[in-house]
Write a structure and sequence with these properties.
The chain is of the alpha+beta class. Helices cover 54% and strands 15% of the residues. The chain has helices spanning 10-37, 42-51, 56-63, 70-81, 83-102, 105-116, 234-250, 258-291, 303-331, 340-367, 374-381, 391-403, and strands at residues 117-118, 121-122, 125-128, 144-148, 153-164, 171-177, 187-192, 199-204, 215-226, 293-294, 297-298. Bound molecules: flavin-adenine dinucleotide.
Length: 408
């Protein structure tokens, strides 16, 4: 088991520098254009695929880094480049993690490569859990999966919303209720293979930030998928449902569900994305404060500005430490006895929102325009306190974990 260390090893430093180079040379220069276009930056994803950043191999390598720092380091660098484009590059990973967390080896081997495609023909994937009436309250999900035993097929019906890459994905991972009475414990995840009839894109959302990332509704009308598309397989599902029913009878509620397992695994990674955006804005603000002169001296000569920068940097470093701790704990199998994963996401996302707002203030009028990137970074940062569980939900998880009480 890897000891916790803040010292990156030579391999990690090499990967970090390589990613930083890609973020600086390819992502950052394209950021403003794709933000304005509000379209998936396919050429940039393709560039990432060509150099090996957009691939299962790359993420698997980072994911299985025994120190746990591979994923947060990668996320920080890519999102330092630009959050919208970076989410287009890593969004497929959320669906891939859903398969890794719940799928059999065969399912992992079959579907994950189809999620990425290859450098000549890149594909994306979508993880569809949220619904118009089931955001934070995942248990109230209305999408149903009914088993047609005669055909060994599952029939999916419902409407998903806010799905990153929804409708444009080659492979959709859809969470649906198999036994609605069990709430979130009655949910299961399904692969919807490319070209399956009945799945269509609903509304594509025009967003405040991360506009290069495609977000849309996904409508499921009598979508039939083969039995082998149930992640983890029927036997495992039946066992899990039987256990959940037993626990429900006995009044217990300790059975994990598929969607929650996915969210738990991805929370520190979202914290790392937030650290990347915060660091990017802080660096622009520091540079500006050193060079912008008012009253005959650089504005950083004023404590009012310098202290803001000192606080910004302190909070960014603190956020990174929480993220690294949680990622190390996840990789080394340490139990999250104080909800450290949620803590890292909560703190880093709030820091990103605050720091990017401070960066606008430090750049004054320029900060408020699209001539400088901090305006975009602030719009982008607002997503971190919302997706993968809002800040309020993170606090709820932390408070429940610490107190052992069902705090509402
Ligand atoms: C750009 C974007 C991309 C996304 N990508 C995906 C994706 O790929 N796949 C996917 O499945 N989902 C995705 N989501 C959905 C996202 O996870 C949800 O938006 C989020 O979980 C919040 O749900 P909601 O929007 O329905 O808000 P609601 O749950 O309606 O919450 C509204 C407000 O009420 C608060 N609130 C709710 N319940 C409580 C409570 N018990 N205590 C205190 N406060 C509470 C919330 O914190 C929030 O402030 C995405 C969302 C966005 C905006």
């Amino acid at each position: 088991m890897a000891e916790f260390t803040l010292e990156l090893n030579d391999d990690q430093k090499q990967v970090r520098d390589w990613l930083h180079g890609f973020a600086e040379d390819v992502i950052r220069p394209a950021a403003a254009e794709w933000d304005e276009r509000e379209e998936t930056p396919w050429p940039v994803i393709q560039e990432a695929a060509k150099v090996g950043i957009y691939s299962l191999d790359f993420y698997a390598q980072q994911f299985f880094d025994p120190t746990g720092l591979g994923i947060p380091m990668a996320m920080e660098e890519l999102f330092w480049g630009d959050a919208g484009i970076a989410l287009s590059i890593v969004g497929t990973g959320l669906a891939a993690v859903g398969v890794l967390a719940n799928g059999t080896e065969e399912q992992i081997g079959t579907w994950i490569p189809q999620m990425y495609g290859d450098a000549d023909d890149v594909k994306v994937a979508a993880f569809c859990s949220s619904e118009p009436d089931a955001g934070s309250d995942v248990a109230s999900m209305r999408t149903r999966a009914v088993y047609d035993e005669a055909k060994d097929e599952w029939v999916l019906n419902g409407t998903k919303t806010w799905a990153t890459n929804g409708g444009i994905a080659n492979v959709h991972v859809v969470v649906a209720a198999v036994d609605a009475e069990l709430g979130s414990k009655g949910h299961a995840s399904f692969i919807v293979p490319p070209g399956t009839p009945g799945l269509s894109q609903g509304q594509k959302f025009k967003k405040h930030g991360i506009r290069a990332s495609h977000t849309a509704e996904v409508v499921l009308e009598d979508v039939r998928v083969p039995g082998h598309c149930l992640l983890g397989g029927k036997e495992k599902l039946d066992e899990r449902l039987a256990r959940a029913r037993e626990k429900a009878k006995a009044g217990g509620d300790r059975v994990k569900n598929a969607a929650m397992a996915t969210f738990e695994a991805s929370r520190p990674a979202v914290g790392a994305m937030a650290v990347g955006t915060a660091r990017a804005a802080y660096e622009v603000a520091l540079d500006y404060a050193r060079t912008r002169e008012q009253f005959g001296r650089p504005i950083i000569d004023n404590q009012g500005v310098a202290f803001q920068l000192a606080d910004m940097r302190t909070q960014i470093d603190a956020a990174r430490l929480l993220v690294w701790r949680a990622s190390w704990m996840a990789t080394t199998g340490k139990p999250f006895t104080s909800a450290e994963g949620s803590m890292s996401k909560l703190y880093a996302s709030e820091v990103a929102k605050k720091v990017t707002a401070q960066a606008i203030q430090i750049l004054g009028g320029n900060g408020y325009t699209r001539e400088y990137p901090v305006e975009r970074m602030h719009r982008d940062a607002a997503i971190y306190t919302i997706f993968e569980g809002t800040s309020e939900i993170q606090r709820l998880v932390i408070a429940r974990t610490l107190s052992g009480l069902p705090i509402r």
